[in-house]
Amino acid sequence: MKQRQVQAFRAVMQYGSITAAARAIGVTQPAVSRLIADLEHSVSFALFERRGGKLLPTREAMELYGEVERMYYGMERLERVAAEIRQLRRADLRVATMPMVSFRILPAVLSGFVRAFEGVRVTHNVHTSPRVIDLVASRQYELGIAQVQGARQDIEILASFRTHCVCVMVPDHPLAGRSELGPGDLDGVPMVALTRESLASRHVDRAFSDVGAVPDVIIESQPSFAACALSAAGIGVAIVDPLTPISFGDALVRVPFTPVVPFDFHVLKPANQTLSRAGAMFRDRMIATIARMEDVVAI
């Protein structure tokens, strides 16, 4: 049984005659007749009989036709699915990010992405950087944004960016009007500090130690959003990335911290794994969006 024979059989069943079937599949009438004869020889039973000048299917032909239609339906469905995948109308995308990028960067990227590719189902989860890295490395997520400490063989960094930490405080804080603040200005000032596991906290501790200043840490907290919320409650000054405080609007004032404390973050994927078409499109949009943001530079 060959595909061309089955095609001819299906056409005869659909159009009711050799002539119409030949016209439908673009071959001659003798060619259709030969294909039907070859198929009958292959299956070892008659498919049609002539009565009064009409070509009538046998009961066996009707039974076979039902299976042929189910087969063609499956093929047509596969073709539709393939077209949807090709046109990015059918895909799954899983993205894990550190909290900082979840308030401005990801919403900006996702708003345009989901409008452009309505069939892509996106899952976005927010985790600490170490957890994001583990999720991407284990291929549970296709893309991630995180701070990376040291070399890793199980992830691939696609793009790297740098911003610099700022001091945040309530608008009526005595230091809110300063153009910049350093460790000496914050000596003994009540503060909300990021936990010591964070990269930024280590840089800040070193800056204070270098000048012999001692911050009055009221609370240690993580991530930056929690530290900002505590600062907005008037508990103390926090030193965080410059993007997170923007979400708090007028509740917080940002003042540059000196010496500069770098806050580096990276777009990453699993090592030795090619991005899906949806993943590649999302990566390009995400990198372009980050590159256009104020206070952020590519490194």
TrEMBL record:
One of its GO terms (biological process) is positive regulation of gene expression. InterPro entries: LysR_HTH_N, LysR_subst-bd, WH-like_DNA-bd_sf, WH_DNA-bd_sf. Keywords: DNA-binding, Transcription, Transcription regulation. It holds the Pfam family LysR_substrate. GO terms for molecular function: DNA-binding transcription factor activity; sequence-specific DNA binding. Signal peptide: none annotated. Residues 1-58 form the HTH lysR-type domain. Belongs to the LysR transcriptional regulatory family. This is LysR family transcriptional regulator. The lineage of its organism: Bacteria, Pseudomonadati, Pseudomonadota, Alphaproteobacteria, Rhodobacterales.
